[in-house]
Amino acid sequence: MIRAEHIRFAYRGMEAVLKDLSMSETAGHCLALLGNNGAGKSTFLKCINRIHSQQGGVITLEEKDVRSLSRGELARNMAYVEQHTGTSRLTVYDTVLLGRKPHMKLGLGPEDYRIADEAIARLHLEDFQLRYVDELSGGELQKVVLARALAQQPRVLLLDEPTASLDLYNQHEVMRIVSEIAREDNLLVIVVIHDLNLALQYCDRFMLIHRGGTYLYGDSAILTEDSIREVYGVKAAILTVGSRRVVIVENEQMEQGG
């Protein structure tokens, strides 16, 4: 579905952030992009969605170069939820309806309202739909923007740190919903996330980005004590609790990350 080959990107006048990044993913998976701050995770997400245009390599969606797609085609296939979501004086319902914009021709029709209703129900927002989004908590707002993205009916869902600034309950609630969306709706979800334990619990594919390239890429087996030390510069132990793997960082052994 999404294939990226040897992606390179540099901000103007700066050293390349992405030097050689490659991946290939199909629908039904939740891919976690992992790495230190400044590693290029969010930049890569924006290259996929063509917010940034890479200076090297190619990104394809179903074998089509994303640079050949119109903005409308791109919006009908990909939904992007940025890290810092602004608020406005719109109701929750109207905000979710905005997700239908890429599919509109002459205006909203019964099908658009039905899809918005389903997205609101999926995120359990029925009790909030007439409230203004600037009155919501961080967790509530994050669910609204996810509902808006679902109303867009994308094939690929791109999420930039969706759990940032959320409390513990809402971190797990948002990631649980994201994981369900990937499986039940057969979408490809690509998520930038810092919490390795959240990633291990809710994602099934992983990419470690280090020094501008793909350090390791695959299933959860790539997350080892050695790879965490190399990418994050910390010593960690990986324990098995029930059926889950859990990362424990040994603070007294912290090193400077690379």
End-to-end separation: 32 Å
**Mean pLDDT level:** 92
Strand order of the largest sheet: 6-7-8-3-9-10
| Overall body shape | globular
**H/E series:** EEEHEEHEHHHEHEHEEHEE
- Supply Rg: 19 Å
Major beta-sheet overview = 6 strands, mixed
Low-confidence stretches: none
Helix share, percent: 25-40%
- Overall structural class, as computed from helix and strand content, comes to alpha/beta
Percent strand equals 25-35%
The number of distinct β-strands equals 12
Structure annotation, total helices: 8
How would you sum up this structure, described in words?
This protein is an alpha/beta fold and 258 residues long. 31% of the residues lie in helices and 26% in strands. It has eight helices and twelve strands. The protein has a six-stranded mixed beta sheet, sandwiched between helices. Helix 4 (110-122) runs antiparallel to helix 5. The longest helix is centred in the last third of the chain and has 17 residues, at 168-184. The two termini are 32 Å apart. The model has no long low-confidence stretch (mean pLDDT 92).
Topology:
Layout: E1 2-9, E2 18-25, E3 30-34, H1 41-48, E4 56-61, E5 64-65, H2 71-77, E6 78-81, H3 92-97, H4 110-122, H5 138-151, E7 156-160, H6 168-184, E8 188-192, H7 196-202, E9 205-210, E10 213-218, H8 225-232, E11 236-241, E12 244-249
Parallel strand pairs: 3-8, 3-9, 6-7, 7-8
Antiparallel strand pairs: 1-2, 1-4, 4-5, 9-10, 11-12
